[in-house]
Amino acid sequence: MPPLNPIAAVTAKDPYPYYRTLVAGRPVYRDDMLDLWVVASAAAVDAVLADPAARVRPVAEPVPKALAVGPAGDIFGQFARMTDGPKHVAMKNAIR
Q: φ, ψ for residue 75 (rounded to 5)?
């Protein structure tokens, strides 16, 4: 039996047929039952990662003001996902 959703697919014995079905028919969709967006194809992932609307924080605020002062801010600022500096381009590309 194929997985019922992308979360269940993670633990399926062979999730790849399910993944191929998503890529072919629903590369981007909203799963209301799981309350999340699913982005399944490499092209769709690249498009989302490149779209300014998908940013997780303002460009001018690499570390949220509430965390900026203190150890949490120091750690937060080093996350590849949260940093736009040239130092992190290679890490972001590897993640993609």
A: -70, -50
What is 51-81 written as a DSSP string? Answer: -GGG-SS-TT-SS-TTTSSSHHHHHHTT-GG
Give the β-pairing of 28-31 and 36-39: antiparallel
Structure confidence by residue, pLDDT tens digits, 7-30: 999 999 999 999 999 999 999 999
Angle at 40 between CA 37 and CA 44, to 5 degrees: 90
Q: Which residue, 56, 60, 58, is CA-closest to 80?
A: 56
**Dihedrals phi, psi of 30, to nearest 5 degrees:** -95, 125
The pTM (predicted TM-score) of the whole model is 0.57
pLDDT digits (tens, 9 = 90+) for 29-78: 999 999 999 999 999 999 988 888 887 777 777 777 888 888 888 887 77
